[in-house]
Amino acid sequence: MTKNHDFKELVDRNLSGLNWNEQNRRKVFSAINEEERPVKKVSTTLILIAAILCISFSALAAGVLFSEKYEVRNVARKAMESRYGITEDLLALFTSKIEEQENGAVTIEYSAPDEGFPAERMGKYTVLVKGNEASVSWSNDGMSSEGGLKAEAYGREQLQMLLHDYEAAMQELREMGVVSGKSEAAPNPRLTGEIIWTDEDQAEADRIMEEEKAAEEQRQGEIANAEASGHYTMQDAVRISQKAIAEAYGLNQVQLDRITYEPDSTVIVYDEGIPQANLLFWLWQRDDQQFTEKDGQYWVLFNMDTGLVENILYDTGLAGNG
């Protein structure tokens, strides 16, 4: 392996993941030793190596866990709460889409799902983030949000009703005609009276099981490929993600010890060819499953190449969509 190739690998690994271990330490100091030729001018290679050392140690000392994209989303979340009182738990009622602008700004759009929610009254929020500054607008700005669920626009009050008493709120909305009623599926005539399991039934069941098996094998294969092509393992992803959840949400050690990871829900997605693991964690603080503050789902998007958390989606699960 050539010296240039060694240095390229060193730059790639340290500047992408800011990952420091004994192997990297040996590589750096080995490269430094190669600079022993008595020259009056410090080489570019040595300067870059020193810069990598400073960056790596600074990042480790600061406990870097979050990517720039995460920080952008965090600025947007704070702006939503400041302007409209929409806290992060309420944001779980919306889907989000992020888009980078040519001027370096980022636009994040929060919109309600069309199915199962009064999307038109909930409206759409658009946050423009540039640096640490953000401006927010709502598609229902200027409309009244007074009058409970009878309001023409649903702000913080109505969103809390949907989050904390979803079934009662949706029942009232169905009675008001704001959302359509639940569709009743036609009963299967083969499931009435005496049920006879036929060869066709068994063949269909076998087909479904084979499809599920193939899907699981594909999921496991994608995880293995992500580990092979990235710089981090799933064990790393779980460990760092738990630390990120604790830091982002101020969890104490008792709460952190109650967090459970659900490996069967892990999926791999790609952003510009970079593998990212979407991991699901649960927190239930009471054995009787009664809700306590900070309970619910934590979906973490972990970059397998850089080792940084790209996003955390917190969902209380109280709205029936957990």
Summarize the structure.
With 322 residues, this protein is an alpha+beta fold. Helices cover 45% and strands 18% of the residues.
Report what the structure shows.
With 322 residues, the protein is an alpha+beta fold. It contains eleven helices and nine strands. The strands form two sheets. Strands 5, 6, 7, 8 and 9 form a five-stranded antiparallel sheet that branches. The chain has a four-stranded antiparallel sheet with strand order 1-2-3-4. Helix 1 (3-17) crosses helix 2. The model is unreliable at 1-42 and 55-62 (pLDDT under 50).
How confident is the prediction overall: mean pLDDT? 82
Helix tally? 11
Structural class: alpha+beta
Helix-strand sequence: HHHHHEEHEEHHHHHEEEEE
Which outline best applies? globular
> From the alpha-carbon coordinates, what is the Rg to the nearest angstrom?
25 Å
Largest sheet geometry: 5 strands, antiparallel
Classify the helix fraction into a percent range.
Answer: 40-55%
- How many distinct beta strands? 9
* Beta-strand residue percentage: 15-25%
Q: Whole-Å distance between the termini?
A: 51 Å
Poorly predicted runs: 1-42, 55-62
